[in-house]
Amino acid sequence: MEFTFLAEQFSAIYHTAAEGVASAPGRVNLIGEHTDYNDGFVLPCTLNFRTKVLFKARADNVIKVHSLNYPGESDCFSVAEPIKAGPSQWGNYVRAVAFVLQRAGHKLCGADLLIESDVPQGAGLSSSAALEVAIGGMFNSVAQLKLTPTQLALFGQQAENDFMDCQCGIMDQLVSANGQSHHALLIDCQDLSTQLVAMPTNLVVVIINSNYPRKLVDSEYNQRRLACEAAAKKLGVSSLRQTTLDAVEHNTLLSDVERKRARHVVSENLRVIDAVQALQTGDLAKLRTLMAQSHQSLHGDYEVTVAATDGLVKLSQQALGENGAARMTGGGFGGAIVCLCLPESVATLKDSVIPQYQQQFGLAADLYVCTAGQGLVVQYF
Ligand code: ADP
Ligand code: MG
Predict the structure, then answer these.
(1) 142 φ/ψ sector (left φ>0, alpha ψ -120 to 50, else beta)
(2) Residue 227, domain extent
């Protein structure tokens, strides 16, 4: 949406001009699934879909917020008082960020806010992290908190964990805050160190949401985490990052299930590092192999795929042939798949994969063509 239109909307709502905009992108994980809570590697990239927060500081301690994505609903709260959940479901994300900043001793000030976003919501592209990081960036500027993008990412994660009651890892907020245009971001979840990895200029990122109704996600996720912890303990290491495939194959204490779960995590970490090199050298053949292996491992060893995402990946791999790579992305049990492919192959995905998927699974999939966008940006007009 045009900035002039957004600025006009802001003025119409608040009868004063916005003084700046904080914006942050959604993300997709290219490879490195279920490795984050095992101190491993992940390789997400930002998207060119962004959440924008237009702002103007107020002289009092009141936060007023509207979202063009939720017309007719607004939220209002004071940062001079302890912050509690309010009546607006989405307004609570704004409160959540204010809450964790305040809890850490930061002094906030009031502001008028207008949110607008083209990050699809609930599609696994992390519209929530984009919102948290943009709101954090806004507070950082308006209240002059002098926090780094990584600190803002950690506050975003705390907001989601401690106020919204969603136990997400740090990947989404970290890449939304620190990502760069045309780059993926290698994150070492052991120490949160990051490394930008240039995306091959000839490839686009295509995300296809299976729209398969997700169920049992939380309980299955917890079971995977527990199995990984149990496996690490039997292997005598603090996390699965500290072990090898050889140790996993030969340890006699591991149950069959624990061995499979550990094998996925340890092999996935190796694939992430190989994928970094493949991206750097623009080696699409290697990326195809690594992403196919990742999917296979999530299917066979980690058992988090469903027939719909398996089918979508298979159809995409067949349609792309040598011109692209595909695998499921996100926690699994439905959700989206991610493809890296030549721009001319996008039409094949649209015209052949989407209808075939509909025919086989009775579901209409959504397709998004993306490039890697800039991480958190705060600009004054
Ligand atoms: P995901 O992060 O996968 O998109 P979540 O359920 O974690 O899905 O987050 C979606 C929620 O984030 C929405 O229900 C809404 O509360 C909030 N949100 C995201 N984008 C916006 C927006 N532009 N305006 C208001 N709230 C938003
Ligand atoms: Mg989310």
Answers:
(1) alpha
(2) 204-370
